[in-house]
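Researcher: Re-running this chain for the archive, since the previous output was lost when a drive failed. Same request as before.
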Amino acid sequence: MKILELYSGIGGMHMAFQETGLQGIIKAAIEINPTANLIYKHNFPETHLMNLNIEGLTSDLIKKLDVDTILMSPPCQPFTRNGKMNDINDPRTESFQHILNLLPELKIKNILIENVKGFEKSLMRSQLVKVLNENSYSYQEFLLSPNQFGIPNSRLRYYCLCKKLPETFSFEIQDCMMKNYPGKNMPSTCFEIGDILENLQGLSKYNLPETILRKRLKILDICYKNSRRSCCFTKAYGRFIEGTGSVFSDIPQEVAERNLLKLYEIDCNSKEYSDLVQSLGLRFFTPKEISRLMCFPEQFSFPKDITERQKYMVLGNSVNVKVVSKLIKLL
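Model: Regenerated structure tokens:
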């Protein structure tokens, strides 16, 4: 496989391809975000990384790169509730539409697309399917989450695999696959959260401020060492609480739940409340722990000048490496 990685971010697709063990090379990666590019270059210094607006791509440039495979994760905001769901009327879809316009001029054999749940019902998806059909591609769509693969994290995403005919898939094409992913030996349960925790001093800087605990305790999604689940982490994790990801308590779950019941009956401005809530030891997951939940390899790291906020933002925009690696193998 000779791969062009579009919207390359911090290299999630690159890591997924490496995990497959398949023969091939990332011929080039293209990303406009400067922070993501710093992190990508830090981890993949040998890859040809282009700081380029995708709308500036031409068919001639892609042909010169000599690629036969495209891996991409176009902007998801046009298809999310927080992004107002403007679909093809959102300017952030223009780069993806530009790629689809170039596709008839290219000799691309394989394509993998990742996006958020909701894309499958969009006008943008209808436009994608139209282009694939007009250009003789066979395709299979999926809605998959890491917890289907034994990973204790919910991150439901849309995926589309495309192959240029006469090449075919090794499985029968169906309507959008969710529960019947055509993989073998799927795990029946997820591993425990305790398996991804950092064993370090100095984690207190991730503790939730007491102001948050007083106001937002009831909406927190709390994980424990024995938990086999966690919520989807978004780019707003660490800045906002609701709907951005789970938090962690280091004390036994039965003790924490008993204390939580007491807290709901106590005046949140009292010293008793303060002492009890602090005993929970609630903290944010660290960027390293989130990268492990997203199945990044242990050698993945951030440059020294990347802030905690930037780490959370780029991780929230990335992909689950294990899920994508399984799909690349199917491709």
